[in-house]
Design brief:
With about 300 residues, the chain is mainly alpha-helical. The chain is built from 12 helices and no strands. The protein is about 50% helix and about 0% strand. It binds a DNA duplex (20 and 20 nucleotides) through helix 3, helix 6 and helix 9.
Length: about 300
DNA sequence: CATTTCCGGCTCTACGCGTG
DNA sequence: CACGCGTAGAGCCGGAAATG
């Protein structure tokens, strides 16, 4: 079958509707359900929220905030670090730049203030999350891009010209985009009118936003079924033989998007992460023979796993 | 035809703070 | 003092395309 091209229009080779491993029949729906059932027995049920969770100044994690731009920036900050570090950075952001009071972004960090202030200030604010210089650079560049693009979109809306990804927007949504642009109110809410793949493609154009970050925002904020692949999800997909041993994370994402039933994508993402952190035998840098292996509790997935992969 | 250049696909590593 | 976390970019390889 056609191999996916990586190019300027598709940096990571994301696909939609087919897998990079078209010959693969796994995971079947039944296999996904079995793994899901076992993990639920072990860690408890996980349910995808149907409404946006209330905004929080202490939760950086994986895009679980109502405003899309806020989610994207918070998720970027939460990468390459532990959740606790990311939370500290987000608290500091709220303290330094303030929180929006109303609108869709109520509870959101005031990214307009971040956009207007110098990069150095941001570097110092998010230091606790690690890689502060690089992340601040990415965020500042992203905010600049968002500003430029929403201005361009607004002008096109006013001129009655077609706007990419806005095919499904009604007049009210278009008017709102124009209003935000006129007021220089940075927003990415327009991606809500897009399809999953359009939204993902939109996100990964921004610097510092890769497939994982984009998929997390799609999954948690847009609440699309989306098989976000982090280090734990990737590991289990290999150990379960769902993808080849040598699969990279993007191919695992592409294959998972294709094979994992929509209704299990959210739960499996959450449960794989929890299991990868909680199960002694499945933790990073633990392998058969390492300290405490024999005394450690059995893994409920043991019979399905090949950890040598 | 021989040589060079290009490019997809892959691996490896910097990045950095906080934790154990 | 090793390690987690994910992206970007460098480096490598081999086949394809371009060049002489």
């Amino acid at each position: 079958r056609k191999k996916v091209k990586r190019g300027t229009t598709n940096k990571y080779g994301m696909t939609r509707g087919y897998s990079p491993y078209p010959y693969r029949t796994v995971p079947t729906k039944e296999q996904c359900e079995e793994v899901h059932r076992i993990l639920v027995e072990t860690h408890g049920a996980v349910m995808q929220p149907t409404a946006a969770p209330p905004p929080s100044i202490t939760v950086a994690g994986c895009g679980e905030v109502p405003a899309v731009l806020d989610a994207l920036c918070r998720t970027l900050i939460s990468g390459n670090t532990l959740m606790a570090n990311a939370d500290k950075a987000v608290e500091k952001l709220a303290e330094v730049y303030g929180i929006l009071k109303d609108g869709v972004g109520a509870g959101s960090i005031n990214w307009n203030a971040v956009w207007l202030a110098p990069k150095e200030k941001l570097v110092n604010t998010i230091r606790a999350a690690g890689c502060p210089d690089r992340k601040a650079g990415h965020i500042k560049a992203t905010l600049d891009m968002v500003h430029e693009e929403q201005k361009a979109r607004a002008l096109a809306h006013i001129a009655g010209e077609p706007v990419p990804g806005a095919q499904n927007e009604d007049d009210g949504q278009k008017a709102l985009e124009v209003k935000k642009a006129v007021e220089d109110y940075l927003s990415l809410e327009h991606v809500r009118a897009m399809t999953v793949d359009e939204a993902l493609a939109e996100f990964v154009r921004y610097p510092g936003i890769g497939v994982k970050t984009a998929a997390c925002v799609a999954l948690f904020t847009l609440r699309f079924p989306c098989f976000a692949v982090d280090t734990h999800v990737h590991k289990f997909c290999k150990w379960l033989g769902w993808v080849p041993e040598k699969a990279n994370d993007v191919d695992t994402f592409n294959h998972g998007e294709h094979m994992v039933p929509d209704h299990l994508k959210y739960a499996l993402h959450q449960l794989f992460i929890r299991h990868g952190q909680d199960c002694f035998k499945c933790r990073k840098n633990t392998k058969p023979g390492s300290d405490g292996w024999n005394e450690a509790p059995d893994c409920p997935l043991e019979h399905l796993l090949d950890r040598s992969k």
